[in-house]
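My current task is to audit a protein record that another person submitted. Please read both lines and tell me whether the tokens look consistent with the sequence. Do not assume that whoever made the record got everything right. I have pasted the whole thing underneath without changing anything:

===
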Amino acid sequence: MYNTLMTLFLIDCVVLIACVMMQPAKNDNDAMSALTGGAGDLFSRRKSRGFEAVMQIVTTICGALFFILALAMIYVSSH
């Protein structure tokens, strides 16, 4: 049982890393805007659509699965 969970956990880790790396950048600002207080677009958030929305959902699911599998592996290894 533990080996199966470990295999699923490792697969989820690789998929989660790929999902995070495939997400597009959220801002077009450079690092200077953070230093100079450039928060002019604080309330101008756009809702993600298309590819961004799909990647956000897949990343959330993979993150939740990561957490659940980690807790399951802890439970199985302690019993």
Observations:
- Helices lie at 2-22, 31-35, 51-78.
- The mean pLDDT is 82.
- The chain has three helices and no strands.
- The longest helix spans residues 51-78.
